[in-house]
Amino acid sequence: MEFSLHILGGFQALLDPTVLFYMVLGFLIGTFFGAVPGLTAVLAIALLLPITYSLDVVTALVMCASIFMAGMYAGSITATTINIPGAPSSMMTGVEGFPLMKQGFGANALGHAALGSMIGGSIGAVFLILFTPIAAKLALLIQTPGKFSLILFALVVIGISQRGAIAKSVVTTALGVMIATIGIDVMQPVARFTFGTSALVEGINLMAVVIGTFAVSELLIQARDVVHARTVDKAQVANFAIKRRDFIPLMAEVREIGVWTYLKSTIIGFFIGVLPGAGGSMAAFVAYADAMRRSKRPELYGKGSREGIAAAETANNSMCGGAFVPMLMFGIPGDPTTAVVLGVLVINGLQPGPRLLDNQIDLIAPMFASLFISALILIPLTLFLLGPYFVKIVSIRKALLYSSIAVVALVGSYVATYSSFQMMLALVFGIVAFFLRTANYPTVTLLLGFILGPDLEQYLRRSLQLNKGDPSTFLTSPDSLFFLALTALFFYFMVIRPPKTPVTAT
Amino acid sequence: MRSRLLGDGRLVLPAVLFVVTTIYLYQAFQIHPQYDEGIVGPRFLPIVVSIVMYAGLGFLVFDILRDRSPRPERAKLEFRNFLPAVAVILATLVYIAVFETIGYVISTLIYVFALLFVFKFDQNVLWRVIYSIVITAVFYILFHTLFDVRLPTLTEWF
Hints:
The complex is a heterodimer of chains A (506) and B (158). Chain A is mostly helical and 506 residues long.
């Protein structure tokens, strides 16, 4: 009952003009970053990270949630109109949306994408509100060896979900953990890997890693690949004229897609979101494949299936709610965006875990409300108001865009400690991530290794200390055994006997 | 021959990471715990991570050496393709070096102007200058006025 009142209080907090302003601003930023090819919602939140020092924590979290939801939906805009997915999670939407666009039903396809995103996003947010207290109770049952095994499970699953690049993800995860070990040891007052530099004693700031990995590396990649002056060729968007009423999907089409498709895709998306490292691409792909398998009109798939768009978009927006559950209750991000949101929590002194619901629910509840309102109201409202101009907005000069991103990223990293040392670190990590990305190494695993590494070490050492150095505690403790068995199960089904269809994680 | 030895450039990054890991592992052995924790002291995880890194690199190198198919032409790493990225790195290095000394306004103006050049901004010099001023001003207002961030100024020296 008390939890429900806090949730209602979260909705009430959104009525504050400042909070409401930042939620709408976040949604517009997320829409822009999601729609423009090369930019992502992760990058938007990474750039926001330094600004959270100046923002109230509630406002920052509300903004992050609306960026996340908008970014996930907005990828469908360029996927449908010009067949370039703004975000990887909109790949399947492009497969069905672009043929519809060519047949003259582009606005209708965007309408179905928005409807799916609205349904998936809002029900996913409701699931988040319902499942968080249950996850909190489960989290309380996990003891120290179990916490170690849970983090190990997360790292292994994140690694093996990078299909075709498992060795590379092992390397980048290990690199992330290595970077996290720089500075004072987690248990003893011993400085490690400082190479005599006093600036490294405090360790590496999360902000430098996030900004370097996501913003500076993107800047370098765009500089390397700069061939066209604009993000999207102006000729491609010159003749894009649609009327607002065309966005509204026909009732007959919605009936044909069916309530069950929306609901099942929502459930698929939410639970894939709960899995560490899976992300929106996998959610969209699995829901799309499932919808195609049981479709009454499978012949339409690949040629412009509205059902396919609905399934993919419902699932990837529902994933947003699911990804918050492990991040908030176990400190394990479900996807790259929640990994950066975790950074926002940590910067503001909030510690993920079951106690978060007891002590700081008033700070978290507005974020839940923001996810729900962003999906239910802002997605359709933005499509209706800005839809006809969407494609024109995404065709901007790269030079202006990336110069602006460079300034925000570097000045933002300066803000953390008012020292140019953080800017230098951001540049160093940016260069490292640039070379890793050039050679197709996943950098998300580097970030997650960096975030989860210290907890992994702490719980490992505490468990062994409490059990006089006996490692069998990981097998005798039921919660630990459960997560180790789960790790083995995932390893078996994803590496030893993988599914035949290729699935790519974000 | 040299190209094949380096796996068409694909072995360069694993080689660099191997060297980094070896230095890291050496440093791990130099850590002296304040008190005895048994086998799992402050150097335990760094050693384990180094082993995991070596294993990952081993698999990676094995995959590269086993893959005899020639890489597509466009995927080959050529230094000239990296020149714009190198230019951004150099511009950023200079920006960071002078940021606190000459202040936000002048350093950002020059930095943005340089980036507009690297990103092939398709307008004349006057427009580049105008956009450099606009971008610098917009983010000054954003950070200084809206988010109350204290940005370095040249006047601090006087």
